Amino acid sequence: MKNLIVTADDFGISKEVNDAVESAHINGILTTTSLMVSEAFAADAVKRTTMMPNLGVGLHVALSRARPTSPPSAIPDLIDKNGLLRRDLVGAGFRFFFLPHVRKQLEIEITAQFEAFAKTDLRLDHVNAHNHLHLHPTVLSLILKIGKQHGMKSVRLPIDPNTKGFGAASLKPWLALMKSRLRKHGIKHNDVLLGLGEIGSLNTKTLISMINGLSSQTAELMCHPATGPWADMDPKAKNFRHDLEFKALIDKETLNAIYENSVMLRAYRDIE
To answer: Would you call 9 helix, strand, or coil by DSSP?
Structure first.
């Protein structure tokens, strides 16, 4: 049997993303989404889920390039001069690992995000992180510690078999460590992650090729659909074609490929 979890990240970041998530779930192949609890349209996102009882909703832990959940005074070393979580991923990684006072602030922010999700009364389908920062051992340790207190049962494993090169090779030890730690804690995860190399460029043709290539492993397709650009989107994503990702999820050819390949569309809660 071929199992596919189709996840839209960044739920709550804009109306355009929320519109795409709702339509792609009702009219397309989207099965889950990951909520950014502190973004401007998070409340709108949560409200929409009442009309989508079969949509799996998880927590998209945001520790960079996002609005903080905690008061800025509680996490001064995590935010920039504009009051947003810092964009410097490499620098943040070193601070998380080597500076105890920064790790304490990190724990405060991650706890606040889990607590904010709990207040929505949504069932926690899964957890992942913006920019895959849960690969960082310090971040993962805190997510495992705090998440289990909030009923966390599944975490995304960002392992894409189609990603090649030095970057992919350098991540292998971290992915192996992460996989081992998840299993040790009894946390379920996907076997493979599709879409890492297609962020901002996924289209119907590429998506159908992925579907045709599915094996018996449990795969997750990560995507970032939106009906169009939005006012305060990340400048680095200005050239992304979120609209094409959205169209690919609802395309009749995509639906036909799912049927022809006998693919079972799943949420994380369906993983045995």
So the answer is: strand
Domains of the chain, by residue range, sit at 2-270
The tens digit of pLDDT for each residue in 219-271 reads 999 999 999 999 888 877 778 999 999 999 999 999 999 999 999 999 999 98
DSSP state of 265: E
The CATH superfamily label for domain 2-270 reads Glycoside hydrolase/deacetylase (3.20.20.370)
Q: Residues 126, 70, 111, 99: is their CA dihedral positive or negative?
A: positive
Longest Cα–Cα distance of the chain, Å, equals: 54
What is residue 35's three-state secondary structure?
A: strand
CA 261/CA 232 separation, integer angstroms:
39
- Please state, in angstroms and rounded to a whole number, the distance separating the CA atoms of residues 29 and 40: 26
> H/E/C letters for each residue in 212-236?
HCCCCCEEEEEECCCCCCCCCCCHH
